[in-house]
Amino acid sequence: MSNLIDGNQIAGQIHAELAAKIANVKGRRPCVALVRVGEDPASISYVAKKSKVAAEIGIESRLNILPESTSQAELDALLDRLNADDTVDAILVQAPLPKHLDEQATFNRVSPQKDVDGFSFANLGKLCQEDKSAFTACTPAGILELIKRSGVETRGKRAVVIGRSLIVGKPLALLLMQKGVDATVSVCHSRSENLAAVCAEADILISAVGRPNTVTADMVKEGACVIDVGINRIPCAEKKSGYRLVGDVDFEAVAPKCSKITPVPGGVGPMTVAMLMSNTVKSFLSKTPQK
Ligand code: NDP
């Protein structure tokens, strides 16, 4: 399909660019510390994927796997050690954390200079200030990169984001409205009235809800660019796993109306990992002399 945005291909380009940057530096490799608490199956697979991509690019990843029973004090102590370790450039705490742990306090415990997830108040504040030294949350940063590299015009265009979470919707809205990107942004959520009418005005429509068929064809303007962030498991007897992944968008009905559209899987997902690597290299290069 000619209007498909291939997230795997664009992520691959970014990996190659990062590998070239790393090859240009003397001495040690960049290093990301991956922290996983408990045995959530999705978290296991996300951390494994991040570790694999890091190795392919030339980034060292150090796995820190803690038991489900880990206390906040034990997790904080690990983060303090990683914050103080000069050989660690980047720290990623895989969400979701077990319910007894305070996720936002944990994100804020990570040093802002190593917070490559961009979830700390320091980096979210810098994003508001359009400070280029900020680490921007990986999924929103990846979405903007997909849009830019696919040649989609943002300046003066109407962008509608469905979802207002701290990890996707809010930082994405800030990125889209920042100077140089210059979109006119609306953010919708579960209390929004006339969702379909608001979406139908979008030149760029981004759904980050986590519910299949949230975006149907009647909600999409002819020629719009549609970015599907949602990852939803639906039962599928033909699959060995018993499920398949779909996004928030009714892809079959919506795709023919779009100038561009991302698939699920293979759209936003690979870009999230690519941006984690990009932020890790950014942290590394900020303190490492070039050849
Ligand atoms: P959250 O549950 O934190 O946020 C979902 C948002 O959707 C909320 O703002 C909620 O509104 C809104 N919402 C829920 N129902 C509706 C509705 N019927 N109409 C309009 N808005 C609605 O999810 P996340 O932001 O963490 O993730 C969203 C999706 O993106 C998930 O499927 C997740 O798996 C996926 N994801 C994918 C990533 C990737 O790399 N591809 C990375 C991160 C997330 P309200 O605030 O009012 O509750």
Question: What distinguishing features does this structure have?
Answer:
291 residues, alpha/beta, Rossmann fold, 2 domains, 5-stranded parallel β-sheet, 10 helices, binds NADPH dihydro-nicotinamide-adenine-dinucleotide phosphate
What does this protein look like?
This protein has 291 residues and is α/β, with parallel strands linked by helices. It folds into 2 domains: 29-114, Rossmann fold (3-Layer(aba) Sandwich), CATH 3.40.50; 138-269, NAD(P)-binding Rossmann-like Domain (Rossmann fold), CATH 3.40.50. The chain is 38% helix and 16% strand. It is built from 10 helices and 10 strands. The protein has helices at 7-23, 41-57, 72-84, 103-109, 121-128, 138-149, 169-177, 195-199, 251-254, 268-285; strands at 31-37, 60-66, 90-93, 158-162, 184-188, 204-207, 225-228, 232-235, 243-246, 260-261. β4 (158-162), α7 (169-177) and β5 form a beta-alpha-beta unit. It is globular and about 50 Å long. The termini are far apart. The structure holds NADPH dihydro-nicotinamide-adenine-dinucleotide phosphate. NADPH dihydro-nicotinamide-adenine-dinucleotide phosphate binds next to α10.
